[in-house]
Specification:
This protein has 286 residues and is of the alpha+beta class. It is built from 7 helices and 15 strands. The protein has 2 domains: 7-121, D-amino Acid Aminotransferase, Chain A, domain 1; 129-282, D-amino Acid Aminotransferase, Chain A, domain 2, CATH 3.20.10. Helix 5 (206-217) crosses helix 7 (265-283). It binds pyridoxal-5'-phosphate.
Length: 286
């Protein structure tokens, strides 16, 4: 698929992505003054839409933009987008900017938020995939809980990981794990699954939350607990999670094998439970 193929949604209209235009004075373009979401669509059905829209509402509130659409209007808007793109397995990207205004850091007294959404094909997870990661210093701002489009630091970090031959950067702030450049992180040691607790240092990943729920229901020992560098490096398994890739295992961290470097028994079991949980929710329309 070409990068600009498909139909997108922009401020109330559906149109070919290649024809969509926003003003150069849009504050999303000028300041990165915008928030976004990415959610999976499986066989034409949106998964965890409410969780994504709740997080969008929190991001909008954090930056003082009034919600441009109700939950029902979002549902209709995205359903129209999915239908027009042929359904199937998709990753939906949506973005809300503060709108168009003369360039000034201060919030404009009147601006209408720009609402944009597009989608692209999504490859569904069938089983455990293994990627390599490197550790890098977390040099981002201190409001990583806001899903802001101002992602320059994340872009540089992820690019540095790729330059090192790895897929993801695992970020350390003052010796403590926060998250990945575009993912949350879980570690498994002595049969216990741990992930850093929510704070303004990391994004409340929807996949992170759902995995904790699935593990809690299954009675699997899991904790939201601060993880230091030593624990990270000594882990038997390391997972990175996101809505578009579900759960990936880290095979090598900074070139060193994680655990025995070949087996991911806890991840395999948890991913299977997660897929079952997702299928159940999709089947029941939630
Ligand atoms: C910085 C960051 N943390 C965590 C995540 C995972 O969040 P989610 O599971 O909601 O996709 C992402 C996803 O893109 C991300 O960019």
């Amino acid at each position: 698929m070409n990068a600009d193929a498909g139909i997108c949604y922009l401020d109330g209209a559906y149109l070919p992505l290649a024809e969509a235009r926003v003003s150069v004075l849009d504050r999303g373009f000028i300041f990165g003054d915008a928030v976004y979401e990415v959610l999976p669509v499986v066989a034409g059905r949106m998964f965890a839409l409410e969780e994504h829209l709740e997080r969008l509402a929190r991001s909008l509130a954090a930056i003082g933009i009034a919600p441009p659409l109700t939950l029902a209007a979002w549902r209709d808007c995205l359903a129209g987008l999915i239908t027009r793109n042929g359904g199937g397995n998709l990753s939906v990207y949506l973005q809300v900017t503060r709108g168009v205004a003369p360039r000034d850091h201060a919030f404009p007294s009147a601006a209408t938020p720009t609402v944009f959404a597009m989608c692209r094909p999504l490859t569904m997870t069938a089983g455990i995939s293994v990627v390599n990661a490197v550790t890098l210093p977390d040099n981002r701002w201190l409001r990583c809980d806001i899903k802001s489009t101002s992602l320059l630091a994340n872009v540089l970090l992820r690019n540095e990981a790729l330059r090192c031959g790895a897929y993801e950067a695992l970020l350390l702030r003052d010796g403590w794990l926060t998250e990945g450049a575009a993912s949350n992180v879980f570690v498994v040691s002595d049969g216990v699954v741990r992930t850093p607790p929510l704070s303004d240092r990391l994004l409340a990943g929807v996949t992170r939350g759902l995995l904790l729920e699935v593990m809690g229901r299954g009675g699997r020992p899991c904790r939201e607990e601060a993880i230091d560098e030593r624990t990270l490096r000594g882990a038997g398994e390391i997972w990175i999670t996101s809505s578009s890739r579900d759960l990936l295992c880290v095979g090598r961290l900074d070139g060193v094998a994680v655990g025995d470097g070949a087996n991911y028994p806890v991840a395999s079991a948890v991913l299977q439970d997660f897929i079952t949980y997702r299928d159940q929710r999709l089947g029941s329309g939630t």
